[in-house]
Amino acid sequence: MRMEHPARLASQRSMEVVQKKGENAKERWLALFADDAVIEDPIGPSPFDPEGKGHRGKAAIAAFWDMTIANVQLKFDIERSYACGNEVANVGTITSTLPDGKAIPVSGVFTYRVDAEGKVVALRAYWEFDKVASAFGG
Q1: In angstroms, rounded to a whole number, what is the distance separating the alpha carbons of residues 55 and 49?
Q2: What are the residue ranges spanned by the domains of the chain?
Q3: Domain 6-133 has CATH 3.10.450.50
């Protein structure tokens, strides 16, 4: 992927922090987002977001980290990336490895929109929660 597009760069930074974690990972990840940013992962109602309204603002995004990212090891395999305007759409698979070693691959389209400063204002993930859950006995 070419790195010069601001939305693509923001997505790469986000994926790198989430994948490698390390010291102060949550704080480093939150710093990539604008104060009023929203995460919809997946878009619509799910156990992560029963009302389907997304996680809006830094406090809600921090809670999303604690509920999801903190509990798994994530690996990103981006096959294609399309940048235009102030957004990028990454197509690929994110594999979540649970503490018990079970790996759950999720294929989808993952979009990032940034503001003029390159901060993420919207991260939206297009994947089918029900399909993934049923494939793993959920």
Answers
A1: 8
A2: 6-133
A3: yes
